[in-house]
Structures are given as C-alpha cells and as structure tokens.
Amino acid sequence: MGYVIAAYALVIGALAAYAGLLARERRRHLRADPGGAEDASERNRG
Amino acid sequence: MQAGPLDRAAARLRAPSGGVLLMLAVGWAFAVVQAPEDSVQGVIQKILYVHPACAFAAYLGFGITALAGALYLWRGDEQYDRLGVSAAEVGVVFCTLALLTGPIWARGTWGRWWSWDPRLTVTLLLWFIYLAYLLLRGFTEGSARGARFAAIYGIAGIFAIPLNYFAIDLFGGRAIHPENLSRGSLGTGMGWPFALGVITALVAFAHLVFRRLEVEWLRARELRSEAGAPGSAAAERPWGT
Amino acid sequence: MNVLLAVLWKDLISEWRTRDRIVSMLLFSVLVVVVFHFALPADASRLLQTGAAGLLWVAYVFASILGLNRAFALELENEALSGLALAPADRGFVFLGKAASNTLLLWIVQGLTAFAFALAFDVAFLPVALPLAGVLLLGALGLSSMGTLFAALAVRTRYREVMLPLLLLPMLVPVLLGAVQACTGLLETGGVPLPALRLLLVTDAVFLIVSFVLFEFVLDE
Questions:
Q1: Where are the domains of chain A?
Q2: B44 contact residues in A (CB cutoff 8 A)
Q3: Rounded distance, CA C31 to CA C160, Å?
Q4: Interchain proximity B164–C173, CB inside 8 Å
Q5: Candidates 1.20.58, 1.20.120, 3.30.70, 1.10.287; CATH matching B7-35+42-223
Q6: Which pLDDT band, with edges at 50, 70 and 90, does C89 fall under?
Q7: Choosing a second label site near A35 at 20 to 30 A (CA), which of A44, B123, B206, C107?
Q8: ipTM of the complex
Q9: End-to-end Cα, chain B, rounded Å
Q10: For the whole model, what pTM was predicted?
Q11: Domain ranges in chain B?
C-alpha cells in the first residue's frame, strides 16, 4: 500500500511542483514587462 | 517580437485546460480509489493506472518535439522551436515519472527495482535522448543555430522508438537479457480508471505544455530586448566558431 | 558522386599524412582491451569467450567517439566548414564522403583490435574472419553515419567533447544489439544469426537515410 501512495504522491507532487515553477517564472517575467500577456493573447500579427 | 498562433493559443488555453484538468483529476481519483483490487497482485496493481499514462504522455511529447523540429527546419518559424523545447521538457518530466513509477511497481510486485524490461529500457533510452536534446538546446541558448541543431537531433531521436521496438521484436522480447516481466492485464472494473488516467495525463501534458510555451515565449522576448535589437542576429552566441 | 569521392579521398589523404586519428583510435581501443584484462576476475576465460563480442564493441564505440570528435575539428580550426557549404546541391555527398571516411578508419581499427584481442585472450576469430569483417563493417557504418551527423552538431556547441557521446550513445543501442548478437552468434556457431543481421541492415539503412537528409540543415548558415 505504501508503494501505491508513494507512486501517486510522486506523480501528482512532481507535476504540481513543475506547474508551480512555471507559474512563478511567468509572474517574474510579467512583473518585469507587463506587456507580455497581452502580446501573447491579443496581438493579431504573425 | 511577434507571437505566433501557437503562442497565442497557449496563452488562451492555459486557464481552461487547467480547469478541465482539475475536474478530470478528481474524477480519476474517485475511479482509482473505487477500482477493485487485483486478485493476483493486490493493491499494488493500482500503480498501473498512472505508470503507463505517464509513459504515453512522454512518448506524445517526444513525437511532438520531432514534428515541431521538422516544421521548424521547413518553415524557419521560431514558434515551432518553442513548441519543440516545451514538448521535450514536459515529455522528460513525464518520462522521469514513468521511469520512477515503473520500478516502484516492480519492486512491490517482483521484489526488484530494475530488470531491464524491454519497454522500460526503451523509455530509459528516450529519457537520455531527450535530456540530451534539452542540453543541446541549453548549450546554444537562444540562437537560431541552437534551434536548428536541436530540431535535427529531436528528429533523429524519434527513430529510436521504432528501431528499438523492432529490435525487441526480433529477439523475441529478450534482447540481451532473458527476463521479460509480463504486464498486468486489466480485469473487469479496471477499464475506467485506466482510460481516465490516460486522458488525465494527456490533458495534464497539454496544460503543462501551454504553460511552458508561454514561459518560453516570455524568455525569448526578454532575450531579444536584452540584446537591444528585435532581430535574431543580436541573440546569436557563436560558440565554437 | 564525384563530390563524395573527392571528400573521401581528401579525408583519407590528410589522415594518411598525419595518421593521428587512426593511431589514437587504435591505441585507445587496444588500451581498453588491456584494461579489461585487469578489470575482469582472474579466471575469466569463459566470460571472455562468450562475452568477447560485447567487450570488443565497447572498445569500438569509445574509439569511434574519439575519432569522430576529431573528424570535424580540423575543418573547424581552418574555417573550412563554410567552404563545405558552398555547394548546396552537394551537401548530402559531403556527408556521405565524411561518413565513408569515418567508417573506413573505424573498420581498420576494429580489425586490428580484434586481432590484438584474439592474441591476448586466445579467442579464435580466424575461422570466421570474413563474415566477421562484414559484420564489423556494418556496425562501423551504423556508428559512423549517425556519428558523423552528431559530430557536425557537437563540434559547434559548448563542451563539444562531452556533447558527442551524450548525443550519440543512446541512439547507438540498436546497432550495438545487432552487432554484438551477430558477432556472438558468429563465434558460437560459425554463421551469422539472421535476426541480428536484419536488425543491423535495417538500422544502418534508417541511420544513413536520416543522417543524409538532416545533414542538409547542419551547414545552413
């Protein structure tokens, strides 16, 4: 049973941590230059 | 620096895919807890609801990396390079998880962590290959040459999948080592948690790729503005020439 | 085709003048074999008979990486890489020429090392010398085709000496599987096992085609 819990905790934990790291970096970039989010989703060129 | 349709789609889909993921994950958790215990293996069999799903996501990631590489070489559009690195990185994450959950299951079932099971071995090879892809791209940070080299390697690497499975087939699944652990087969009541697990993993993969794509675009944009010019020439770092 | 032969000839001639690649590859390969003697247990004679192919191919892989690291280093030092790119229609044949020269050099090193191995460990290669040479050539081709492509990449990357083995080794597994199985079968029964031969042929074909196509994009500046 311990193995099962370890496996699921590992998967969910790792994925959540990775998502968190990405979110943190995203916030860091947007704080430095807030134009980013708008550029990505609204600019209609390219 | 312009955001391509892929970048825009990633930014738009990030939140909704996250919502879908959350709902799926909850539903899947219920299904896993509810699923009957395997008569032979016991509760440890439930790891097989998450282990192959991670492997599928990883293989999907590597396939996308190869495809994105081909598109980049053909079109020269940098958004394909960004897609390639994002899919590769998320793929490596899922691959690592597959390589960890597999041995956990093996240890609980057979008492051994690693046995050179052919399929897990191929997954290990792919892990090395796409980790090398990330290293290659990392050592040529931000340059068009780096993107090109990575695309080349990402395409070459994907051929490891058919070639190695062909090798496994030829040697009757034994390859060099005679052991071949059989996969647990699914009994009644186990189809749903398994299918749900695969779907959840794939949605998780997509969601993480969207996030990673966005971050990659932000990084590239920052690199460009640091270099002072919106073009690519300023971002070139001529290693080795 | 002329370009292929021209590149091959130029490479072999420059190699013949200095002989630095082939000598270092050969020395290294034989050194690995010597290290095996010290690394294996005292009464390893049975292990050596059954595992001879495996040990040899380990030595071959490392020797080939040594040679490949040098394959483009000369051009890089002399800024000749851009010269190679001047004829876009011929780039594929430039690749084939380079891969051919790498294959040939490796094949020679393989043969001489096998000879040294046979002497050192009393393994009988002579009865199967001809088919063995064929298998060694097929293996060398597999190693050198992908190897030449990746060497061209690695040589213009940071940490180039480390980059090549990292890129190449995981990809080489099917070649190793086929070559080791083929050599082992050859030593045991005198005939090459067909599945191993098929694997080698298929892998070589895939590697050659993929490398040939992708090399176009290496010199794309």
A1: 2-33
A2: 1, 3-4
A3: 23
A4: yes
A5: 1.20.120
A6: low
A7: B206
A8: 0.90
A9: 27
A10: 0.89
A11: 7-35+42-223
